[in-house]
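Researcher: Checking consistency across runs. Here is P-II family nitrogen regulator again:
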Amino acid sequence: MELDIPFDLIVTVVDKGNCEAIITASKAAGAEGGTIIPGRGTGIRENKKLWGIPIEPEKDIVLTIVPSDRTQGILRAIVDAGDLNQPGKGIAFVLELKNVAGICHLLNQEATGN
């Protein structure tokens, strides 16, 4: 099924273990769910070492596909839940999706207005 309905991908990167608050907030704001991917990496404020050996902190990467008209509200909820306006708490950004497949239930909802 292909419809001309705009979708966005909200990508959120937070410390490992903080993804549940992000998923809960995004669902409460209208998202259907999200995909959690484990990752590693450091931000500008992270420079941890153990016995002189640099350690890359573990991260949770949350991918959330949302209809474009809901993006700002869901992003706002994610920023609040993750306290992302505070240094070292994480980052969230939005990518416009050109084509989406495999989310028939969302496409049907958007097409029928339900």
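Researcher: Does this match what you'd expect to see?
Model: One thing to look at in this run: The beta strands are 7-15, 35-40, 48-50, 53-55, 58-67, 90-97.
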